[in-house]
Design a protein that fits this description.
The chain is α/β, with parallel strands linked by helices. The protein has a single domain, classed as Response regulator (Rossmann fold), CATH 3.40.50. It is built from 6 helices and 5 strands; from the N terminus they run H-E-H-E-H-E-H-E-H-E-H. Strands 2-1-3-4-5 form a 5-stranded parallel β-sheet, with helices on both faces. Strand 3, helix 4 and strand 4 form a beta-alpha-beta unit. The termini are far apart. The N terminus is likely disordered.
Length: about 150
């Protein structure tokens, strides 16, 4: 579900979409949903992406992702591989992205990325970034995923 402080339980982070936008008058570069059950990691990635001018919606599970996609157009989903409920974040992101038109998917993982790539684990995603050092690499990975065909 979308997460944050504006409602009880798992409410939406920072209110509504308009409340998630940067405080300046510039339109966002793209709308990105960050799907990760790790609160600190998700907030860190969100902060980095917002500082680069992206409109970011935080969610911590696949139900939240589905709700965010129903709420309005999204350009990219940054999805963790394994969520707290045991579900596959990449697979769920890919399924929902296809259902809502072609939304790009950027895989993010704490696992060994070379081993995952060797077995075809990145099939169907538009890019990937490893959690270790993601703060330094996520902007480049997002830009590449958004530019991919």
């Amino acid at each position: 579900m979308p997460v944050g402080s504006s409602s009880s339980g798992g409410g939406q982070q920072g209110g509504n979409r308009a409340g998630d936008r940067q405080r300046n008058a510039d339109p966002p570069r793209a709308t990105i949903v960050v799907l990760d059950d790790d609160l600190l990691f998700r907030r860190g990635i969100t902060r980095v992406l917002r500082s680069e001018g992206y409109d970011v919606i935080e969610v911590d599970d696949s139900d939240g992702l589905a709700a965010a996609l129903e709420d309005g157009p999204v350009d990219l989903i940054v999805a963790d591989s394994r969520l707290a409920d045991g579900s596959d974040g990449w697979l769920r992101a890919q399924e929902l992205a296809e259902r809502h038109g072609r939304i790009k998917v950027l895989a993010i993982t704490g696992y060994d990325t070379d081993a995952i790539a060797a077995v075809g684990g990145y099939t169907g995603v538009d890019g990937w970034v490893q959690k270790a050092g993601a703060g330094f690499n996520v902007v480049r990975a997002v830009e590449e995923a958004l530019a991919s065909e």
